[in-house]
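FYI - complex with manganese (II) ion, inputs then prediction.
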Amino acid sequence: MPSAATQAPVPAVHVDEARHWDRLMQMARLGAIPGEGVNRAALSDLDHQARRLLLSWGAELGLASSVDALGNLFLRHEGTDPTLAPLLAGSHMDSQPKGGRFDGIWGVLAALDAVQAIRKAGLATRRAIEIVAWTNEEGGRFAPGCMGSMAFSGHSPPNTWDDTRDREGLRFGDELARLLAAESDIPRRKLGFTPFAYIEPHIEQGPLLEAGGLDIGVVTGIQGSRWFLVEIAGKTDHAGTAPLSLRQDAVQDMLRAITALNALMADPTDVLRFTVGRIEVEPNSSNTVADLARFSIDFRHPDAAILTERGDAIPATIQSAMTTCRATVRETFHALPARFDPMVQDAVEAAALDLGLKPRRLPSGAFHDAQFLVPVCPSGMIFIPSRNGISHHPAEYSSPTQVANGTRVLALTLLRLASM
Ligand code: GLV
Ligand code: MN
Ligand code: MN
């Protein structure tokens, strides 16, 4: 068997661009929405179908499948020494409610096609390579995101989100049980293990690679994120008869709270990210004063000190903005900034250069499952360009050559790391 060093670029040759694209487009049909977008919520029937499709491709290749208690799905390519810690590569298969065809799913299919290329090249690896599809990375249906990787890594106990409900009132715990029952034919594995390394391929979701005419992002780390859920309770009243001075209007106090938060989050350097992306009002009627306003906060920063200081100030800022209503503030997600391992970064960069591709090191503004693997094993990510930097939108696009190039880089990186 040729060594990885002498056969360095070989697996890349076996990445079949047409097949890779076709698999992506087959997945994109599961949850297709107008404008070439995808809506495939975590643990939905469409998610079940997408997982079955992935499992069928894994079975054709002879990969061994398994699933853990959080529904994280694995496909294993065996190594020549099965006792060694495996290399782990993948991403997620759920999408945003109005998402694109690439966020998440490309990383899973890149890992599948990279493994297929290594096998096609006839190259054995010392270490096993496991392809992973993490459960609920987006958090669009059940907030927050990254539940599968947070439970896998021990960041949070696996039952943390059992009572989290979607808009229809369905519990995460029940929907997870439904998935696991539907996949009872898949061998169950223990939650969590220590991989040799973890690599996540993903679209950049920003404009830098495209603007620089570059092929590959070598991701250096991920900024920190904190999510909060705010509920403001007031009292319903008749919009025509109740004097303003006597109202407890939840919408008006919500507006005061958001205005105060905008002041707290002011940042002349424009590095800080602050988003109120979801608002619900009850009873949501034009001529009734709202007795409940609920909104989400997504706050991000690369500096842990700023993330901590301003994030910790959020509850008090909201409370001091209340005039007649009562606010409750609950933190639902807290991910510190993460730095990726130099060994993984170097391996990705070397693979790109060996393939004649142009890499650039850059940090990620989006969060990813990879940041929860950082405390567990050497971790890193491969980015490919996103057209116009657009993501979390149906117009999200990377070309057949761009996705195939990312998969080629992954195949070579996996081959080298799995031979260590
Ligand atoms: C991931 O989807 C994020 O919101 O960063
Ligand atoms: Mn993603
Ligand atoms: Mn996303």
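The first helix runs from residue 10 to 13. Residues 1-7 have pLDDT under 50 and may be disordered.
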